[in-house]
Specification:
Distance between the termini: 80 Å
Number of strands: 0
CATH class of the largest domain: Mainly Alpha
CATH topology of the largest domain: Tetracycline Repressor, domain 2
CATH architecture of the largest domain: Orthogonal Bundle
Order of helices and strands: HHHHHHHHHHH
Structural class: mainly alpha
Shape: elongated
Helix content: over 70%
């Protein structure tokens, strides 16, 4: 029997609910992206305390209620702004599971792992460095920001610790070197607090920071 494709299309139309859901999800994502972008600019320009949710809405060209519905509080919005900056996009994949981070943990040579780790950490510093400064100012007045900053510090410590533990277990670190000490030095080089310090005291470029991380860790790990 020959199929009547025209009738088939009419008999099995795309559900209006499905179409509406898809359009709605894209609309929500677009609205959130606009608010996050507007908030980032305002937080960096004005600081945390001086920025209001109403200003964010105005900057994004949206109704103030939209910001409250999407984020609830300024602290929650700021957290989303920082999260987006850490990974560089809206994909639901955290930093630890990004390809370059995985490479930093699994590459065949220590040299390749250090290069990958430096790129990951310096990339974060490049994208979120200005926001780290905002967070440093906000911690004293906003408990949620202080809590998030503390969690970020712990995450950096965990990343540095795992990096050297894996390298040691894979036989890439000299036996006389203590992975724990290497992790401490790495944390000092790439932590958010160090990024803020470098931004405040030096005209620090990403390439200079990357070179510092790669050269320091390579020297420490290969010194005889």
């Amino acid at each position: 029997m020959q199929c009547d494709c025209n009738n088939a299309v009419r008999l099995h139309p795309v559900s209006e609910d499905v179409k509406t859901t898809g359009l709605g999800a894209r609309r929500v994502a677009r609205t959130e992206a606009e608010l996050i972008d507007a908030a980032r600019h305002l937080f960096v320009e004005q600081g945390y305390v001086s920025t209001t949710l109403a200003q964010v809405a105005q900057r994004a060209g949206l109704a103030p209620r939209t910001v409250y519905v999407r984020f609830g509080t300024k602290a929650a919005l700021f957290a989303r702004v920082v999260d987006r900056a850490l990974v560089g996009d809206a994909e639901p994949i955290d930093l630890a599971h990004r390809p370059r981070t995985v490479e930093a943990m699994t590459a065949d040579t220590l040299e390749a792992r250090i290069r990958a780790l430096a790129e990951v950490c310096v990339g974060v510093a490049e994208r979120a460095g200005a926001l780290f400064e905002v967070a440093a100012q906000a911690e004293a007045v906003e408990p949620e920001v202080a809590e998030a900053a503390a969690a970020g510090r712990r995450a950096t410590v965990d990343l540095c610790t795992e990096f050297w533990q894996r390298a040691a277990s894979d036989g890439l670190v000299r036996e006389r070197l203590d992975p724990r000490n290497l992790a401490v030095v790495t944390d000092l080089l790439v932590s958010a607090d160090s990024v803020v310090h470098l931004r405040r005291t030096r005209a620090w470029s990403a390439s200079a920071h990357r070179t510092l991380v790669v050269d320091t860790l390579t020297t420490l790990a290969t010194a005889r």
